[in-house]
Predict the 3D structure of the following.
Amino acid sequence: MRRFIATAALVASAGGYLLAAPERANFILTNGERKSGIVAYHGDQNENLINGYLNLAQDGAKDLTFPMDQVAVIDFQGSRPNQAELAQLPADSSHLLILKNGTAQQGRFVNMIGGDTLVWDNQGGQRQQIPLRDVGRVYLNAQSARTAYNYRARGAGAVATAGQLGGNSIRVDARQAWTDTGLTVNQGDRVSFQASGQVMYSPNPAHTATPDGSADRVANAPEPTAPLGALLGKIGNSKPFGIGSQTQPLVMPASGRLMLGINDTEVGDNSGAFTVVVTRQ
């Protein structure tokens, strides 16, 4: 009887589908951190993604919650992806689904329901429900995934983090006033930037910013004309300039070391990071 009750507790009907034992997953965040737990589900619809936040359940503890745009990969395998898989990462903002049988498809992540089912929109606009036991990985942020797995395409330049030379991908920590890209530029050089991620420019959860910044501005910010939290650049000790999320090449205003930073007066209480791909034309 006890065995029957335990089994029955794991299987329940909800919204027309069966809830099996929830799957375990690893969240690889855009700042490089990795978090593990059980795919949580809440509410009448048994959803994991609620109000823009993904959830991992912890034994006997409060769920870990993460803004979706701060999760680069949802990993159900725990192993490092091979080069062939990483080569399929999209160049745009599309998501990539990798099944354990090796099948890959671009589309959009919608949600996870019941702890055991992925809801996915394929490129044809068709909505699918896929058992999580069949899913290897879901890539939500391709560029941050490349950085997390230290992947570089054949013939591409070396991948680097802050302080390393020759980098393409730079992690810009919101708690650091300026991050050295390792790139020395000349006045008139054309450099393009591709930024992603989200930062908080104070301990207040409402004070979040994308590379384009927030709705707030302050007169004594490093670049007063740019929104608080926005991605900035500067050459050596020259005047900072705005970068944001635009990807068109910018003409460098001076010669020297290229630095990246967050438009904020006090960085010590910040959190999060931007991932920025820097390319000299």
User: Anything to note?
Assistant: The domain at 153-280 is CATH 2.60.120.430 (Jelly Rolls).
